[in-house]
Amino acid sequence: MIARRLTLGLTVMTLLAVAACGSPDDPAEPAPVVTTTVVTTSAAPESTTTAAPAPKAAKIKVPDGVGLDYQSAQDLWRAAGLHVAPAKDATGANRLPVIDANWVVLSQDPKAGTTVEADSFITATVKKNTDG
Prior knowledge:
Layout: H1 2-20, E1 59-61, H2 70-80, E2 83-84, E3 88-89, E4 103-109, E5 115-117, E6 121-128
């Protein structure tokens, strides 16, 4: 009985909502659509220009991250303008550093002191602090 009343109530509400959507004057007449087109023209004089040569990438000296924890080394390298590639596990187990501060940098490529273009990549070989 409750389900029947609920169904009847929902049906009445739906019919009222649909009826309220129509226009009281003429429900078959759609609302007018107004379209505006704006055309602008520019009479800028044509000129011939040649592209300037691309600026040379800045050169940076690679900082030394060997002996630092991996997080500190990454911070150092990024501050210098390098991108840090995923580290290599020195044990060969292909582990990925999860908490970078728990890993130590054993070597880096490119080596410290090398001059490279800014935005170059650097890769570290790391081991976990708990490794022997």
